[in-house]
Design a protein that fits this description.
Rossmann fold, alpha/beta, binds D-glutamic acid, seven-stranded mixed sheet, 278 residues, globular, 43% helix, single chain
Amino acid sequence: MSAAPIGIFDSGVGGLSVWRQVVHHLPGESVLYLADQAHVPYGNRSATEIQGHCLAIADHLVQAGCKAIVVACNTASAVALQPLRERFSQLPILGLEPAVKPAVGLTRSGVVGVMATPATFQGELYRATVGRCAGSVQVVEQVCIGLADLVERGQLEGPDCDATLRRFLEPMLAAGADTIVLGCTHYPFVIEAIRRLVGPGLAVLDPAPAVARHLGEVLQQRGLGIEPGAAAPLHRFLTSGDAAAFDRAVARLVGADCRSQPLRWCRSPEGEAVLVPA
Ligand code: DGL
């Protein structure tokens, strides 16, 4: 049993779609959320660069006493999950991957659409999942450059948002997809707009609830769950970007009132990138 916080991180606000499910499914647990907004978006960066950021972020969360880490970013999971698990083998590290398997189980048309960033589609994790699960189902990959930025800016509705979404949805619909996988944690914040644009006949999948349930199981198995009768959970937020803007985004996206702590990137004496209080 442990009252230590769960660390959750993403390039920005997208991981809050996982945060809200973790808080919902594991209401007694404290969570420390870190948004690397100095580097958002991750999706068009190189694997080496993303891995470097992720290792430093995990180091910061481990130093802060986290008992488990959720990489609440498909892009970061695609390229950094393995090195993270190797470097921090002492604690459970969960990642996100596009929910191809449930989509393959659901589709009736035999065509599934996946929305994600370029780095996610290039990662081995995604390739392996498709290879393992797709079988005879056709998987249509839709790179959604700019969609995470729209969510970062808080543009969750309106004509510009609809126009961007239509551009990404149309190729998948034209191919006959009846099931759409949200393969980036930013996208669940526009799920209502997506559902409205594709109509009621299509399933749109957000993997966050399944990830939160799996996290609960892992904590139980490792004896890391919160003790019954423990003190009220504490939810803290960190960002390497603009703290006041992030606080407003947290309020708007998940309804939480927070005063996030700003962080800044700098070099350690050994020349490694590290996060320190700003
Ligand atoms: N939220 C991240 C993901 O799940 C991506 C956004 C970005 O490109 O930084 O892939």
